Fold:
Amino acid sequence: MSKSYRSYLKLLICFAWGIWGLLCGFRPGPLPAVQAAANEPVPAGPAQRIAEIIRYGAMAPSSHNAQMWQVKRLSDQEILIRLDPARLLPQVDPWNREALISVGAFVENMVAAAPHFDLEAEVQILVRRPGDTSIASLRFTPRPGGPDAARLAAAIENRHTIRTPYSKSALPESVLEQFRAVQPGIRYFPLASPEGRYLREAIIEATRQQVANDAKQRELAEWLRFSKKEADTKKDGLTPEMMGLSGIVKWFASTFFNRDTVLSGSFRKQTVGTVQKQVQNCAGFIVISSPDETPAALVNAGRTLERLWIRATGLQVAVHPMSAPLEENPWRETLPARLKMGQPVQMILRVGTVRDYGRPVSPRREVPLQK
Structure:
């Protein structure tokens, strides 16, 4: 295949990708309740139940879907959660801020899933420095799960990132009240508010700055899984389905895109264009802050993120983390003051309603229980 023909195909894909995103997801649909998890029997042995809880933990979100967690068995009732150094992202996350938030979400999923298996999880946060690899321990004790356990487990299973455009209608106060019940410090900024307009432009400009950085693009490329074979083998990273591609556009991307494509000017330009469409079509942004930047606070911010996301899943509210302003300066330093938060900002979430809430499509690797 000639170089010019390949370039033409790549441009065609970018165009098709942009048109597909523009046409999908503008109208909100009904908000059906999340279906309860299947009434499967609870595994009898503690080891089997803890293995199932770890499986639910691994459904947590993580930067680039790197899934940077490890689990070590301490006893029949206790496990240790560790960072996997091979799965960190030194270019966009040099201080492990996002890694600790991701592991916090992993921990929260296990806490939330434990009642489904008639267990209660007690968490002890161990991490003290950003470079520590031992993050937290969980001790499980028997306790009946209660009537909401299956519903909560189902919400964990259904939680996923939705990257299509959302309705611009503001979230109703009844939904916001449920979000604030997760954590009083959570803030919602409607798209049309001054803070919403600032966040919209900050996300676009931070993305523009980030895609211009070759080292960060190369790091992203290492986590893109354009081929189904690679996605099925590694069970991590970002697939075409996760990026919202389907049909012929997905086929084009899977067939002709590779890691070199990520460094091309057309890919970078399309990335910024896609982000522009996303932030211009949503109900606004939810911002999660933390009391300070200590590792323990970051783990707790990840737990707050996952509690909110599980709640949003039950309400069929779409969520999409927009991390570029938190990875790039000057936005990272100026966000708290511009938003009048008074605390470090840890997560920016694009939120809204969509016609089709969809199902999770991100690959998940099995997390072995190390001894």
About this structure: The beta strands are 69-73, 78-83, 119-125, 134-142, 187-190, 284-289, 318-321, 345-352, 369-370. The CA atoms of residues 68 and 265 lie 30 Å apart. The chain is about 45% helix and 15% strand. Residues 15-36 have pLDDT under 50 and may be disordered.
